[in-house]
Specification:
It is built from four helices and four strands, in the order H-E-E-E-H-E-H-H. It is α+β, with helices and mostly antiparallel strands and 132 residues long.
Length: 132
Amino acid sequence: MTFLSAFLLNIFFFFAPAPADIPASIYDFKVEGLTGGTIDFAKFKGKKIMIVNTASECGYTPQYADLQATYEKYKDKLVIVGFPANDFKQQEKGTDEEIAQFCRLNYGVTFPLMKKSSVKRGGEQNEVFQWL
């Protein structure tokens, strides 16, 4: 292989487009919501998006109150999206329905919550966290 062909081959790989199955932006995602339905991230265009891993039995669970207050204060400019996960010390053992009820009753959560999923690397990892 000549220097020029090796150089051109390297350029091709450097500038090759991403595979078609990898979303180009966060706005390409549609994720199943905690209480059903699909949440289309395209609806969030024009706003900042804060993506948060959450758990109901975590030492940081009271953060739901602060997240909700922040969401209410800035909801014209910011959307908070919670991703419940049971990946860390079994701190989110409940079903989707139990998680939704817990968040609503204890913290008045109205920001979008996604279906319980894994946020850790591996075969079960939520597609949004894979992309991030």
